[in-house]
Write a structure and sequence with these properties.
Length: 420
């Protein structure tokens, strides 16, 4: 196979810039044609690969995309059939408890499942005083950092599990890192929310007098479909049987759910359509970028856990964190002449180079929160919020105002405490 050319990365860079700039520079045009942009850039990359590898890499990327979007779509549709109504005081403490619960739940039903289940009630309970930072911290905690404890929690860890890393190995090794990151985020959120709450306390108090405290849950039979989807995650053969089960569960859930529940959730398919169109472009166009990383890992001089922590983090911020995790795990094992597709080699590697695996694992999960495209649920949560007319930060606003000043200091502390 011919060597991947640097120019082949241009469609991916173009797509990232379009996602970052066009919603701000030309929102109407982007809303109408974003799928055309994504497909066009995907087509350019696909044509390139047809000439240099007969399309093998692109077919593999498309398989991964089918797996990715089937999980996200099924969890989105099924959770849209569960109505959770929260009424009463949206106090900072109650918000912290909800976010903390979501962080734990993310390890049971995945960051996507937890995000789609809780984003609407979170917005509803804060509707009088909802701001951008509410959505951002929801993405930080529930859509990303909360899911670092189990292979179900976040796609990168599930890929590691499929390669042979024991299911409960990760929770034993990362629990303290998970606790530090999420506690810091919850504390920071609490004080930001406390200031917001004090500004609008009278208005929130009036709502409490009118409605009282109330918890309402409808469509509970859909938890059965959620369980089916989560259980099917462990099916690996034959190819696409898992995805077939997920889609069937989603269709049955949608058909059996009362229209009233969908209406109360303000459910529609636009968020998942947006994610589906944009991420097909991301998965296809990022193929040469990942290939360049894979083939030039030795040239990068990556040796220490520190280097893998920061490099994996940097790339997980702008590439989907699941393939980025697998790329750096493969590169790290390759430098020790070990094969990531050999279970015995994987077991040997985690025994002899435990810190490397820990650094790559937590970095892929945590840094997925750095941008809207670092992890699938991020863009989905933003799309749900936008669809409900909640103001969210722009692509660069998210990074500059929130990710860099809040996440980087916390991740640096984790590096200093646990990776060095």
């Amino acid at each position: 196979m011919a060597e991947t050319n640097l120019l082949s990365v241009l469609p991916f860079i173009t797509l990232l810039l379009a996602i970052a700039v066009m919603p701000f520079a030309a929102p109407k045009w982007w809303h109408e044609y974003y799928h055309i942009v994504s497909l066009t850039l995907s087509f350019i990359t696909a044509i390139y690969y047809l000439f240099i590898s007969k399309g093998i890499n692109i077919l593999h990327s498309f398989e991964e995309y089918i797996m990715f979007i089937s999980l996200l779509a099924s969890l989105f549709i099924i959770s849209g059939g569960i109505f959770i109504g929260l009424k009463g005081y949206s106090t900072p403490l109650r918000n912290v408890l909800l976010l903390g619960l979501g962080a734990l739940l993310a390890n049971v039903i995945g960051t996507t499942g937890a995000s789609m289940l809780l984003i609407r009630p979170f917005i509803q309970t804060n509707k009088i005083r909802i701001t951008s930072f509410h959505i951002v911290f929801f993405i930080f905690i529930i859509s990303n950092c909360g899911g670092a404890l189990t292979p179900i929690g976040d796609p990168p860890l599930f890929l590691g599990y499929l390669k042979g890393i024991p299911f409960f190995w990760i929770i034993d090794k990362v629990f303290l890192k998970w606790l530090v990151v999420n506690l810091f985020l919850l504390v920071i959120f609490y004080f930001l929310d406390l200031r917001n709450f004090r500004r609008q306390k009278d208005e929130v108090g009036q709502m409490e007098k009118e409605t009282g405290e109330k918890l309402e849950v409808k469509g509970t039979f859909n938890f059965i479909f959620l369980a089916i989807v989560i259980g099917s995650v462990f099916i690996t053969k034959p190819l696409f049987l898992r995805e077939f089960i997920m889609i069937v569960a989603a269709i049955l859930s949608y058909k059996l759910t009362n229209n009233e529940i969908h209406q109360r959730n303000q459910f529609n398919f636009f968020p998942i359509k947006e994610v589906a169109w944009l991420f097909v472009g991301i998965f296809i166009t990022m193929t040469p970028a990942l290939e360049l990383l894979r083939t030039n890992s030795n040239a990068l001089g990556l040796i220490s856990p520190t280097q893998y922590y920061w490099f994996t983090g940097l790339l997980s911020s702008f590439l989907d964190n699941a393939p980025t995790y697998l790329t750096f795990l493969t590169a790290s094992m390759g430098t020790h002449n070990l094969d990531v597709n050999n279970v015995q080699n994987v077991m040997q590697f985690i025994a002899e180079h435990e810190k490397h695996v820990i650094a790559i694992s937590i970095s892929a999960v945590f840094f997925g929160a750095m941008t809207y495209i670092g992890n699938g649920p991020n863009f989905m949560v933003k799309s749900v919020a936008d669809n409900l007319n909640i103001k969210t930060p722009s692509f660069f606003g998210y990074i500059i105002k929130y990710s860099i000043p809040i996440l980087i200091p916390i991740y640096t502390l984790v590096w200093w405490l646990f990776i060095v």
